Every structure is written in C-alpha cells, then in structure tokens.
Amino acid sequence: MLHLGMNLFNRFKKKNTIITAIEPVTEDNQLQNFPEMLMTKLLFSGKPKLNADQILAELKKHINNIDHSFSVSSLIFSFPDYPVQLADATLPAQLNILIPDRDEAGIGLPDTAFTQNWHWPEANQVAQNCQYEILITDLMSRSLPYKQRVNLFMDFLAAVIRVTQPSAVYTFHGDKILNPASITGLWETDKVQTLYALCNVRLFNISNDPQKRELLMDTMGMHALGLPDFQIRFSTFNENEIANLLWTYAYHIYEYGDIIEEGDTMEGLAGSKWKCVKEVSLVAPERMVINMIPDEQA
C-alpha cells in the first residue's frame, strides 16, 4: 500500500540541523525506546464548545464500560476493561481532556510543527489562524499492549474530534499538524492506516556542499509506543519512493513488534536487500532507530 503521493516531497533549498554523530548500539550500551504518554492538541479558531455528556455518549458508541469525572479544567475518562498493572496496584487506563482557561486565547506549538506537514498543504495556515486549544493525553496507559493502547487512544481522539469539531490537530510524537476530517475518516473506514495520526515521515537535506545532494528521511512517532523508528541516508533515490518504503517498515514493526535484529536485512527498492543497524537517531529527538543501509552505500 502506498501511503504518500508521488509528488509529496519537494527538495529542501537549505540544510536542516542534525545531530552530527552516530552512536552504534553495543552490548554494553543497549538503547531502547520506552513507551511515552501520547499527547495531541486540538486547535480551534474560536472558543471550543465542550459538552462532556456528548463526548461520553459518542465514546459509548465504541466502548461500553466508562467511568468519568468532569471538572472545569479537565474531563477524565477511565476504562475498567483496560486494566493497567502497576508495581503495587491495578488501575484502569485513563484518557484526559485538559482545558486551559477558556477566556485566554493563544496556542503553543514548537517551531518544528510547521516544517514536516507534507500530507496537508494547508496545515500551517490553518494552525496559525487558531486561537484556542485543548490537550488530550492517555495517562495511565503506557503499559498496555501497544496495539490495544493505540486502538483505545484513537477511538477516544476520533470521538472528541467528532463532538468538538476542531480546525486542526497537532500530534506531539509525530510532530505534525493534521486535518481532523482525515483522522476521523481514516479511522472509521481504513484502520489499515492506524499510524496516520501518531507517526510521521520526515525529510532533511543534510549536505554541507550545495553542489551535492544528500538527504535523510526518518519515521517519527514509533518510539512513543516503545518501538523503533527508522532512518535512511541517501543521495540518488527518489524521496517519495523512500517515504513509501519507510511507511512500509513502520507498519511491519507495528504488526509484528520489535523483531528486527542487528545485521538483519529487509527488502529495499527494486527487490534489493538493505542491512539493518540499530543506532541513536541522527535527527532529534534522540531515540533508537533502525538505520537502513541502502545499496548505494554498500
């Protein structure tokens, strides 16, 4: 399945800042990605209308057993059928909606949020026109099996989007701005693209020589699930073909888990075999990635 359009990536005219050193993973220095709290921001051009009872009713179309606690600053939903085992207790998974001061306008996004939105050409302008935000988090769910966790989070996110109708959605770990209609549409009709709202594929020009083309592409967001991301450094391949390949790798890891060992090979372009090397990522945030060594570097 191709997840990206053929002309989605345009080449950068200037170099992007990267971490300069690669640190291989050794037996004495095992690098591992640990699950992180999932977070998204819903962005609104006007003051959002939050009807807690409507959100609960929408959620119950998909999940029957829900406990809840509503206040002025937060809406907390607990899911007894999704138990989370702690060291000394078992608690239900929680998903929260955190509400800033409703009378205070303004949103906060990192500068990087506006640099890798290849999937939605209008993303930056729509987000810049927004004045209000709410935050969604999945507190108390990191130890759930990652597929169960993603399904719960996405059911929750889609339900809140349908009720609140935001103008845009920002995902922290994918570091991208999304069209809310695309999130709900894909989740309702094509769950094969499970990672659309949580993961991104990024493109960087890393050449120090303006006459030389050298690119790096990586996945961003798999690390938040405790899975490895991928990166590829190359000069001659087509960016869109590499992007589609990276999505294929991400979905393979999502389907089968972290099963790739150091030195394994995976299919590259045109049936070639590319070596897998586990390393610290070249591009922030620092995380464990599987660095794919293409034929052109062999």
Describe the fold and architecture.
- By secondary structure, the chain is of the alpha+beta class.
- The chain has two domains: 39-197, no CATH class; 200-297, no CATH class.
- The chain is built from five helices and 13 strands.
- It has helices at residues 52-59, 123-128, 146-164, 180-189, 239-256, and strands spanning 39-44, 67-70, 74-85, 90-98, 132-137, 168-171, 176-178, 200-205, 215-220, 229-234, 265-267, 273-280, 288-293.
- The strands form two sheets. The chain has a seven-stranded antiparallel beta sheet with strand order 2-3-4-5-1-6-7. A six-stranded mixed beta sheet has the order 8-9-10-13-12-11, covered by helices on one side.
- Helix 1 (52-59) crosses helix 3 (146-164) and helix 3 crosses helix 4.
- The longest helix has 19 residues, at 146-164.
- Mean pLDDT is 87; it is low at 1-7 and 9-28.
- Residues 218-291 form the DUF4261 domain.
- This is DUF4261 domain-containing protein.
- InterPro entries: DUF4261.
SSE topology:
Layout: E1 39-44, H1 52-59, E2 67-70, E3 74-85, E4 90-98, H2 123-128, E5 132-137, H3 146-164, E6 168-171, E7 176-178, H4 180-189, E8 200-205, E9 215-220, E10 229-234, H5 239-256, E11 265-267, E12 273-280, E13 288-293
Parallel strand pairs: 10-13
Antiparallel strand pairs: 1-5, 1-6, 2-3, 3-4, 4-5, 6-7, 8-9, 9-10, 11-12, 12-13
Helix pairs in contact: 1-3, 3-4
